[in-house]
Structure formats: C-alpha cells, structure tokens
Specification:
Blueprint (H helix, E strand, L loop, with lengths): L25 H20 L4 H8 L3 H8 L7 H10 L5 H4 L1 H7 L3 H12 L2 E6 L10 H9 L7 H13 L11 E7 H5 L5 H15 L4 E6 L13 E5 L5 E5 L11 H17 L3 H14 L1
Parallel strand pairs: 1-2, 2-3
Antiparallel strand pairs: 1-4, 4-5
Length: about 290
C-alpha cells in the first residue's frame, strides 16, 4: 500500500476537508478523544515517533498529532492502516463504526437514527429537493450557496451527513417512502446543467423503486394545501410516529396522535392535489429532455 498521495506528498490537514471535531458535540468529542488516545498509546508502545508513524500510514506528522489529540476525525483508511502498522488485530479498524458517526452533525445523526428505524417515511418539500433525494454535487451546491457561507470543512461534513442518510434506500426490509416535490425546485439548475441533469436522473431512478412513491406538485395547480411549508412524517414498527411541519407546531417534533392526525390530513390532501406517480415521472423525463 502506498504511503503517499497521487501527487507524491504525505496527506496533511488541507487534504482532508470536513473532518474537524464539533466542540459542542460532547459524545463526538468523547469518541474522537478516546480513539486518539488509543492510537497514541499503541504508537508509543510500538516505539514509533509521530513522524515515523505518519510516514508509515501515509499522513503528515501534524495530522498524526491532531488525530491523537482528538482535534481531527480519522478517516477509515487511516484507522485501517494504523491497525496494520501497529498490529492491533482489528481493534483500531473496528473503531470506525463509532468514528464515522461523529463526522455528521448531531442534529443530522438524530434525524438519521429516526429515519433508520422508520417503516414509513412521508415527506413534502416545498423549496428544495429533499436531502434524501439529492446527489452529492447537488447537495454540495445547495449547501455551498448558503449565506452567510459555511466553511469548506462544514460544507463537506454536511454533504457527507446528507448522503449518509440515504442508506435508508439500502435497508431490508425496505421502508415505504413517499415524496411530494414542487415543480419549481426541479426547474432550477442548481450547480449548473450537468449537476441539474444528474439530479433529475437520480429522481427518476428513485421514483421507479418498488417501495417509493414520488409525486410532483405542478406550478399550475390552483388549489394547494402545502403553502405553510415542509411536512415530514415518520412511522415506526411499534405503531408510534413522529412528525414535524414548518407551518404547524413551530417545526417542533410532535408525537401526540391528535397533532399527527393534522399533519397526516395535510399530507394526504397535498398528495391528492399533486400529479400521480406515473404523471410525475413523465413530467421529470420531459424536464430532463429540455436540459
């Protein structure tokens, strides 16, 4: 295994955007601090200096110190290579299961945990294409356009977190997924023509999955019950559910049956007003042909 990058340099901090530790994430800080301490103890027990170890794993000395000091999140390849160099018998590689979760912002981890448990996910999104449906480049363009702008590290962390949630499509048994999208965001070429085309192709791909119902709310619709904003409903195997809406309950997660019925009524009405799944896919195909 090469210890250098394609450009012949050891990987250093600037090569690794999006891997800083969020100081406000107590659990994340604890995980990375513990893993860093274990790496340092094993390195010292092996009699290796930081520079020597860095060369062996393919990273710069400064990065080694940052990871061991709990200041940077190690990549999976770093842990795997460290496991080999330090003969840790798989213990360092196994730390990746916890480490990979730390990279994602706390709020996104919590949302991802709920989505991973849900047997039904229903989502109406009015201003953007939902994160569960975004391609990497579309997500990067959307997040990168925020004002005030995020740092490059934050952009990469948020993109990675958004894509990690899409593992919901790989679950078995597959959850029932329902999406209602607005026509406007689908016509907006965020990121440029190629990124836009790739995003439309992704929508067609997902919309054809057996467990997905994807519908489009056309701009010419003269009756629209979703003007209050985004609606999300998650239902779980034990019969419980949680929902949130931009226009109701101040976007707070709600679980009371009487409040959930309001969101279910609104979502059901929006679905009835939208194009059918078949009409929606045909509409997206038409948009793709116009690009």
């Amino acid at each position: 295994m090469s210890v250098e990058t394609d450009t012949g340099r050891l990987k250093n901090e600037v090569d690794e955007p999006g891997w800083e530790v969020d100081p406000d994430d107590e659990w994340g800080v604890a995980v990375i601090t513990t893993v860093g301490r274990q790496l340092k103890l094993r390195r010292e027990a092996a009699g290796m200096r930081a520079a020597e170890f860095g060369t062996a794993v393919g990273y710069g000395e400064d990065m080694v110190y940052k990871i061991e000091g709990g200041k940077r999140i190690p990549r999976q390849e770093y842990l795997d290579r460290a496991d080999e160099v330090l003969d840790a018998g798989g213990l360092l590689s196994a730390a990746w299961e916890d480490v990979k979760k730390v990279r994602y912002p706390k709020k996104v981890r919590e949302l991802g945990t709920l989505e991973a448990k849900a047997v039904e996910i229903a989502l109406y999104e009015c201003h953007i294409i939902p994160g569960l449906l975004q391609t990497r480049e579309h997500a990067r363009a959307v997040i990168g356009a925020a004002q005030p702008p995020y740092s490059p590290d934050d952009v990469e962390r948020m993109v990675a977190a958004r894509l990690a949630r899409q593992s919901v499509f790989e679950r078995s048994p597959a959850p029932a997924l329902s999406f209602v999208l607005e026509e406007g965001p689908l016509r907006r070429p965020i990121g440029g023509t190629m990124v836009w085309r790739e995003q439309l192709e992704r929508l067609l791909e997902v919309g054809r999955l057996h467990n997905v119902v994807l519908q489009l709310m056309p701009m010419h619709c003269d009756t629209h019950s979703g003007l209050d904003g985004r609606i999300e409903l998650l239902k779980f195997p034990d019969g419980t559910a949680v929902g949130r809406s931009d226009g109701a309950f101040n976007s707070r997660p709600i679980a009371e049956p009487r409040h959930l019925r309001i969101l279910e009524l609104r979502y059901g009405t929006i679905r009835a007003q939208a194009l059918s799944p078949g009409e929606s896919l045909a509409f997206i195909e038409q948009l793709l042909g116009e690009t």
